[in-house]
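Re: beginner question about structure tokens

> Can someone show what the tokenized structure looks like for a real chain? I only ever see the sequence side.

Sure, here's an example I had lying around. Input first:
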Amino acid sequence: MWGRMIRWLLPLALVAAAGAATAVAMNASLRSTGGTVKTATASKYGTVLVNAKGWTLYRYTPDRKGVSTCAGACAAYWPPYLVKATSKLTAGPGATASLIGKIKRPHGLAQITYAGFPLYTYTGDRKAGDISGQGFQHTWYMVDSRGAMVTRAAAGKPPTTTTPATTTTKKAWG
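And the corresponding structure tokens:
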């Protein structure tokens, strides 16, 4: 009976270990960008913050200025944007240097902040430019160049539809 149980549990343990190793490797690659914050265009959301490698940066609504509340399992899925505590921070194109800062984290690391709020990446984003964390559980949002959370699509000109007899303007709702 024990042999059967071990044969059933061993593959599950191996899958879990492989998943954890992948998450750790991804976290390390996402955070090793030297403390650069810049901007990029995110489809219908407009200009948002990204790290040096182009990975989207997010804010967590329960956080406060200078305080990260995402740890443990939360941080496994939403890795804090970490650098060595002594790292120099850099404002890339579109970012404001005076808004970039850092807060202390364990083990000699620091988490990068923008406008005082901690920044994170998302393990569900598979490549630079992905925005799959946007609006997740109504608590995770991209950040614009002023440091505000991007909670809806960027406002643009309302679409215009032309028909044979009239022209109407429809209001765009994000």
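Each token stands for a local structural state, so reading them left to right follows the chain. Helices lie at 2-31, 73-77.
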